[in-house]
Amino acid sequence: MHEGEVGSSKPNPPLLYRLFRWLFRFITSIWFREINVVDDEYISDEAGVLFLTWHPNGLIDPMLMTARLPGKLSTLVHHGMFRVPFVGWVFRKAGVIPFGMKPKGRVNIGLGPNTSEVLDEMSEELAFGGQVLMFPEESTHDHATVQRVRSGAARILLSASRQADAAGKPRPRVVPVGLHYSASHVFRERAAIVLERAMELPPVPTEGGNTEDADQAWVATVTKALEIELKRANLSKTSWEERTLIWKGRALVHAEKQRQAGQVVARVSYAEAIVGARRLRAGWEYMAEHEPEVTQQLVHDCQHHFDDLETRSLSPHDIDARPEEVTNFGAVKAFGSWVWALVWMFGLVTWGAMIGNYAPYKFQSLLERFTRRAGVNDSMQGSIKVLTSVVLFPLWWLTLAIMLTWLLLDPLSPVHQAFAAHQVLRLVTLLPAAGMFIVFMLFWPLSARAHMNLFARWLRASRRLRQWQAWQDESKDWDHLVVRQQELAARLVGLGATLVLPGDNDWVEPTSGTDDATAVYRRIQVVNG
Q1: Are residues 456 and 495 in the same domain?
Q2: What is the torsion angle, in degrees rounded to the nearest 10, for the CA atoms of residue 225, residue 238, residue 195 and residue 65?
Q3: What span, in angstroms and rounded, lies between the C-alpha atoms of 284 and 95?
Q4: Which pLDDT band holds residue 42 (cuts at 50, 70, 90)?
Q5: Domain end: 233, 259, 294, which one?
Q6: Domains in the chain: how many in total?
Q7: Beta-strand (E) ranges in 113-253?
Q8: Structural domain of residue 440, as residue ranges?
Q9: How many whole angstroms separate alpha carbon 433 and alpha carbon 413?
Q10: pTM score, two decimals?
Q11: Which of 96, 343, 392, 438 is the most buried (most CB within 10 A)?
Q12: What angle do CA 247, 249, 254 make, to 5 degrees?
């Protein structure tokens, strides 16, 4: 398994596409503090590839996938935001295609008036080795599980497979993608793209005879398989409470395994955390079916523990990371890191970042308050923030650059006159206007990026400082919390040790279109006394 940006020997995409992909990389690298791409090398150099994933985060989903997947990617999405002139133009140039949109002043029927044309175009692209990204739910949402998958993806595959056969080309491959966010609509959270194994599809119906009925049956079968694959790849659960419980349980299991191995309990990368969550979800689903009473009791005990931690403003990691000896030295060290980051933040970098970014940032805050009152869900909040950033921040930087260039270089400006009267500062007034403008335009985003790095370090130091303050608070009954959490972790690890789960040496991937739980089995036969 390879972690990082996936590779491919496909021809380089057009220059304009690469420019906009670079823009998307820049935006997503600012929006997320950590982005992992996990690749099992399922991208073919000859056959076309259809990437499929769920749609939890509006336009951030196609933006992130375009930024991180190689080659030219044609992306089909459903978004009314494409009617915004500038935004629609940018996304179209970056290979994002509005699919099945409702045209202004017309009634939308099914997937939209241009669906057949788009399906035909994407089928041909896939048949001849292109790469297509599709969100087969066909709408963004904030649910904890994959919503009903539509038939468009299967219809594209059927047509593309037949065209590839006719042209003597290899049939396109279908790669489900796990798209994971630690908090999709929150700034500076984590993201991961996990490319799953290529799906095995049923035989394509032969043309001739009663082809229409056979085609409909094939499309229905493949659509159902795609939905199951997406649920498996994206760790779907019926509610966010269940999903959150799985992620917290994963953290307990990870910490317990580190303790058993004699290691210091430490956080893992987001990609590694996803693998752990997949194992726990598979085991959970298996146990819920075969031993529901045991599962319900364990879920109840874990939920009670996590609720208790929440009332004490603690996380499971606070319990696992607490040192055996809580000394003042550790608290002083955490405070020193916090002060160091704070001092640097209030240097020239932060003041430049505040001038260059405070106004659009405050506008975004007001806009978010308004959209939440209007009932806009979390799946669109991140999109709104990113879209307004693409427009507002450059406009603000442009305004500042023009204004400051004029203040410093125009003889009628009072600032220019004050600088010209100074023996040293007068040199500034002699600089070329174009050069001064470029310097200002570069300074605002670069200072903002530097400020974000310092701010992230300050946040880490702040969390560490709060941890030490909590660890020194004996009223939280630490001994009881530590013992209870480690007992729960040992139960989870012990139960997992009796099962063959994803990632084990003897794990066999389930057939395409079936959930992980169907491939889980016990290592030993449990004999009831």
Answers
A1: no
A2: 110
A3: 39
A4: low
A5: 233
A6: 3
A7: 131-134, 173-181, 189-195
A8: 328-471
A9: 14
A10: 0.79
A11: 96
A12: 95
